[in-house]
Amino acid sequence: MTQFKKLLRTGLFAMIVLCGASACSNDDEPVAKNYELKEVAWTMQDNDEIKIIKQTAPGFFVDNNTDQDMEVEVSPTADVQQSSFFYTSDSDLFQLLVQAPIEIYVPNGLTPLPSDDFSYIYSGPKVLFSLEKQSIPLTIEITHKSTIPPHYRLIYSHIISLREVNATFRARFTETNTGEELEITGKWMGKFFIQNEGETTLEEIK
Question: How far apart, in Å, are the Cα atoms of 158 and each of 51, 54, 192?
Fold first, then answer.
């Protein structure tokens, strides 16, 4: 019986040692990495460009079937879509580095970017640094007021001009615990409203 008690005590001690070792091994588990954006730089490579796109917008009409003048207001920019789209060949690394919503400045095409080096942007449009396509709100709204005579139809047609910017970005990140630095490069395309060319005509309703 005494020998059995000794074996029991030895077994309990071994279990305690193993549990302690297990607890210590848990302390050695790798800490999740947390990256912070350090900088974003831009350049124009051979396949990058800035171009003007003209889009014929769907026209519309308003009828005045009354015996009095009708006042109408036209908003040709109401459906204009400005956009931002980042893409890269290593989307997994992008998702690893961009762990929280980040807003950055993007080129609007008015200031030239270098082709032999990267440069930085400190003003202008600001968008989320994300691989999902997103809309950029318009900063202006164009409206036109017109008067439609009795029994006339107002026909409005217009052409929207957009500036499409294609550029290359380089983003550098720092790991907050270790100081490790990583970078990722990719492409970006943005579209910005330039102007609206509208034409209003009146036709008698017969």
Answer: 20, 10, 17
> How far are the Cα atoms of 40, 54, 180, 183, 195 from residue 172, in angstroms, in the given order?
7, 36, 11, 4, 36
The candidate with the shortest Cα–Cα distance to 166, out of 180, 147, 186, is 186
C-alpha to C-alpha distance for 139 and 147, rounded to whole angstroms: 27
Cα distances from 88 to residues 34, 114, 171, 183, in angstroms, run: 21, 20, 11, 12
Residue-wise pLDDT for 115-170, tens only, equals 999 999 999 999 999 999 999 999 888 888 999 999 999 999 999 999 999 999 99
Query: Could you read off the pLDDT of 25-57 as tens digits, one per residue?
Result: 445 556 678 899 999 999 999 899 999 999 888
pTM listed for this prediction: 0.77
Q: Cα–Cα distances in Å, from 142 out to 78, 83, 95?
A: 8, 19, 38
Residue pair 88/166 in contact (Cβ under 8 Å)? The answer is no
> What is the C-alpha to C-alpha distance for residues 87 and 91, in angstroms, rounded to an integer?
8
**Under 8 Å CB-to-CB from 16, ≥6 apart: which residues?**
none
Q: Going by C-beta distance under 8 Å and a sequence separation of 6 or more, which residues neighbour residue 181?
A: 38, 172, 173, 174, 175
Strand pairing partners for 46? Answer: none
